[in-house]
């Protein structure tokens, strides 16, 4: 049952996300094509100046539109995912969803997994659209290949030194960074899910305002908790910052592990909070 729910949610989201990705890629391609045309000396010499200026203005407009869509792709994807969470559990659909033979934590986790996938897809599409926009594919590919070769040479030459500085092999540190990114993304997604849940609890008639207020409230609480955490750390270890500065590479390890731990604790709390509201406080009237 859970697999069917995830499949249905994935396909539903794709009906909005995929067309949005296509729009981004088409705008990137059109912008690149217009830039290429207006940069050709043959076109400049053999086409009326008015036509060239029209193309230049059109290129600027397409570039502006692409930039706006590029910046909004993550927000649009996240907004739709949050809307789907609200629609499935806090509207009339909730009567059906919450009576299915699936535990509430599993329902939340299926939404979270779907959100992970689509946010990562958004990142991939954004990078690929940049690749199209930049153009000069061969030069860019050569540059990336050269950069990769330089990184491998650096690791081969300085691998032992990097390991001594970080305390772990470089590939382990890369994995840690990936885990950190996933931990941050999880905390971000669950913050919105918790905001939707709490917002619908405190504002029956103005649910959007309630959700936004809840997110702002969670942001304040998170900031306070982080400040308290740093206060406790610096109290227990008075020279905490000096030790971080002196340990160079190991300081980076400390920051990465500390951030992963903090985001994980926040995510667990937000997950439990959302689950509690959906199980014990949900009122769809």
Number of strands: 0
Low-confidence stretches: none
Class from secondary-structure proportions: mainly alpha
User: In which range does the helix fraction lie?
Assistant: over 70%
Question: What is the N-to-C succession of helices and strands?
Answer: HHHHHHHHHH
**If you average the pLDDT, what whole number results?**
75
Give the DSSP E fraction (strand runs of 2 or more residues): under 5%
Per DSSP, the total helix count is 10
Q: How many domains in all?
A: 2
Describe the global form: globular
Which SSEs are present, and which pair or pack?
Elements: H1 2-38, H2 41-46, H3 49-90, H4 93-97, H5 104-134, H6 137-166, H7 170-202, H8 207-236, H9 240-246, H10 249-281
Helix pairs in contact: 1-3, 1-5, 3-5, 3-7, 6-10, 7-8, 7-10, 9-10
């Amino acid at each position: 049952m859970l697999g069917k729910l995830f499949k249905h949610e994935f396909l539903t989201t794709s009906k909005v996300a995929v067309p949005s990705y296509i729009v981004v890629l088409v705008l990137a391609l059109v912008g690149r094509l217009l830039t290429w045309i207006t940069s050709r000396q043959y076109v400049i010499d053999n086409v009326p100046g008015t036509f060239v200026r029209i193309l230049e203005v059109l290129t600027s407009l397409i570039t502006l539109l692409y930039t706006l869509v590029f910046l909004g792709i993550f927000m649009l994807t996240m907004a739709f995912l949050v809307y789907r969470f609200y629609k499935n559990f806090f509207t009339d659909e909730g009567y059906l969803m919450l009576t299915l033979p699936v535990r509430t934590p599993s329902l939340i986790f299926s939404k979270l997994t779907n959100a992970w996938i689509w946010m990562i897809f958004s990142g991939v599409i954004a990078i690929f659209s940049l690749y199209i926009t930049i153009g000069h594919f061969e030069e860019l590919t050569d540059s990336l290949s050269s950069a990769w070769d330089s990184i491998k040479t650096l690791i081969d030459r300085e691998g032992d030194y990097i390991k001594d500085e970080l305390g772990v092999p470089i590939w382990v540190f890369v994995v840690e960074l990936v885990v950190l990114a996933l931990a941050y993304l999880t905390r971000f997604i669950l913050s919105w899910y918790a905001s939707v849940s709490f917002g619908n609890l405190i504002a029956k008639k103005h649910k959007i305002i309630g959700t936004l207020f809840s997110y702002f409230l969670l942001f304040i609480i998170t900031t306070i908790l982080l400040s308290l955490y740093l206060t406790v750390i610096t109290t227990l270890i008075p020279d905490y910052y000096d030790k971080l500065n002196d340990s160079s590479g190991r300081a980076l390890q400390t920051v990465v592990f500390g951030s992963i731990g903090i985001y994980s604790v926040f995510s667990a709390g937000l997950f439990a909070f959302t689950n509690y509201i959906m199980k014990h406080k949900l009122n769809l009237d």
